[in-house]
Amino acid sequence: MAPQSAFETNIVEQKVKTLVNAQLKSILKKENLLVSGLKAAMQRRITDQLQLHANNQDLDRFNRLKGFIMNPESMNSPAPPYSSNQIPYTNFPPVAGPRPMFKDSPFYTILQHLTPVQECKVREATRDTIECKIVLKPDVADKLVAEPNLRVMIFCASEPISHFSKVDVAFPHQVEIKVNLDEVKANLRGLKNRAGSTRPADITNLLRKRAYYENSMTLTYALTHKKFYFVANLVRQHSVEELVAKLKSGKTISKDQVIREMVSKAQDSDVQAIGSIISLKCPLSTLRIEVPCRSTVCTHNQCFDASSFLQLQEQAPTWTCPVCNKTVSFEALEVDLYVDDILKSTPKSIDQVTVEPDGKWSRISEQAPPPRPGHDDSSDDEDLVEIKDPPRVTAVKNEMTNGAFSMRTPPTSSREQSTTSSVPPPSIGTKRSVSAVIDLTSDDDEEENRRSSKKPATPAYLTTPTYASSGNGRAQPTRDGLGSFGPYSGNPPAKSNYVQRGYPHR
Prior knowledge:
Elements: H1 10-16, H2 21-30, H3 39-55, H4 59-70, E1 108-113, E2 118-120, E3 127-135, H5 138-146, E4 150-158, E5 174-179, E6 182-183, E7 201-202, E8 214-222, E9 228-237, H6 240-249, E10 252-253, H7 255-266, E11 276-279, E12 292-295, E13 304-305, H8 306-315, E14 333-336, H9 337-345, E15 352-355, E16 361-363, H10 391-401, H11 444-454, E17 466-469, E18 475-478
């Protein structure tokens, strides 16, 4: 270990205050630090970096930065290659402004940062690309190869960011990430209008897991109205099976506790307690529940399957109860031993059970449906009524079948002259005309269509003219609306046989 006198910073810090902006930016670029901001902010970043090397007892990096500060012209010469015992820089100081602290997730634990926090400036009408290098230490590279649950993920957050609150993972709406020129295939948007449903981008499979290898990463974004910050972190991933096992071994909702809550609700005088139905199928997967769980903030007894719920949250972390839509957390999930006892006591063919207010349950298949008030099942057959056509309708149907709608032309012998000018209406004993019969089995439209299709055209000589009284006591023919008098013109003959439509000829 180098002596403490080797990390003297007072003289170097005084030298920093004499540098101009161009020299300060060059030093910041060499150290992979943020180069924007006021001069005082850039000076503070350099002195903080120098103090960090001194605290870590890293003499090589301290002397390197000290050389840039004391001799700024040396930065124009190419940097010497790393030696075999030299570790590339991976301990990054915070950027100007707050470092984003991301919300905890049960699916991963952040172990360390692999890149500095990069700032994505506002680009309302253009696009921009941020480049950075991911250099793995030998121990990190070896662990990534040996332990599959260690992953490298890109975390991103947007403003506002503070030291006192944690933020959700959120990428720009239009963004593309490439690692070693390979595009990262991941959902970087999450669910629409659901903050916190975006997962960090896993880039482990695109990295060259070799020590000191400079993996290049580029983030291209566009049309942003606020700043974004992203960083590459080494995380330990937790599988769904591991989380389910943690739930089963952790806190549980005991059977007695569930029954006490049911009895307490039943004793409430303002609420009428009735039996409820609990489904043994998960509302998410519609399969039989294996590990019944629910949140402690929920008031219902309906459970969902722990594995199905966690698999859904791993893909899109909304963390809402599938039964009541309340916001839940992994820490609030507990296994319900009351429902677990029901699942163990029933065959897989049972999908639902009825739970009484006192906590007793029974299979729905064992219960007979309650009879309706005032209803006798034995009289079901007696209530059946056979509807038959009434005799009158039957006669009409037969008459229709026999061609009752056909109109007959009177025989030639009946067309002789008669002393009467008109035929009286039929007597009571005569057969009723079809027009006076109502068919109850058809509607008006069908009846009109049937009459128009079956009624033949009436010959012109059978058309009955209309007469109007004249001054001489004789009936004068008038137009019938059709613009024709038939074959007659002037006064009708003294003796003629007129046939009225709709009446049989006499």
